[in-house]
Amino acid sequence: MLINWDTIDTVLLDMDGTLLDRHFDDHFWLEHVPKRYATKNAITVETAKELLYGLFRSQERTLNWTDLDYWSERLGLDIPLLKEEVDHLIAVHPGVIEFLLFLRHQGKAIWLVTNAHSKTLALKMRKTRLGPYFTGIVSAHEVGLPKEDKAFWQKLQEKITYEPARTLLGEDSETNLGTAELYGIRHLIYMSRYSSTIVPTPSPRFPSIHSFTELIPVL
Question: Which of 52, 68, 195, 213 has its CA 20 to 30 A from that of 59?
Answer without folding.
Answer: 195
